[in-house]
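Bench log. Compound arrived from synthesis this morning; before running ITC I wanted a structural hypothesis for how adenosine monophosphate sits in the protein. Inputs:
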Amino acid sequence: MFYLLILLLQMKLIKQITDLNKAINKEKELGFVPTMGSLHKGHESLIKISKKKCTKTIVSIFINPTQFNNKEDYKTYPRNLNNDLKVLKRLKVDYVYIPTVAQIYKLGKISKISLKKVDKILCAKFRKGHFEGVLNVLNRFMKLISPKIVFMGEKDYQQFFLVKKFIEKKYKCRVYSGKTIRNSNKVALSSRHNLLNSDDLKIAGLITNKLFNLKSLISKNKKKSKNLIKTVKEELIIRFNIKIEYLECRNLINLSTGLHNKPFKLFVSYYLNKVRLIDNF
Ligand code: AMP
């Protein structure tokens, strides 16, 4: 009896679609945390929220090729499966789904996913096809898993915004966001930190600090946002020799640039030592 209980409490590692169907077909309140692995405290916090809100939690680890607009980036994306499984066991996740690329994409073509012109901003402007790839793979996961709630990080705010719009319209499912988890220098944790050295991470800390200050200056004087951003952008480029893709404020209602009377965030994407980092404040 005791051993049976242990067995029932164990995390189920699933690799095949047929096993997935068998394992979860009776689950009515599944929380789903999609990830690309190399798990850190940011992923952990989403899993903990899911465990609180749902009776069972499923985590996927899948490095989705269709969302990479750059082959090299896909090839070098950090992979750390052994450690990921340790983390997920420690967190007592119920199901872990690790499909192959062939398995997910052999499901065939599903209706074409394209972004509206108004959504082709921030990361969508600089990573052509990225969000179409994200929505495509999540659509496939939705059909396979039918979760009640999907949990996504605020760190990738534009992703959360687009996924929520897409999924809540198409499925009987909610998409919740979890707060950005940061390191001791306030840098938003990212799997890509595995590609940086400690000096890079110190620089990321200085940049982050500057951007937190910029956000609070803008909050006090929204009308001056463009000038304030221009000054800080120039300073960061000169001081740290970084490439900034975008640094701009957008409201949280529709991500347009109109800030009047609306909550807003400052969004950034920059390259540090060839590694692309994003954050929002
Ligand atoms: P990824 O593995 O990078 O695809 O991320 C999987 C999920 O974790 C996404 O919903 C991300 O937004 C979320 N996430 C990544 N980094 C963080 C972080 N530092 N804090 C909170 N959530 C995060």
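What the model suggests: DSSP finds eleven helices and nine strands in the chain. Residues 77 and 192 are 7 Å apart (CA to CA).
ITC booked for Thursday regardless.
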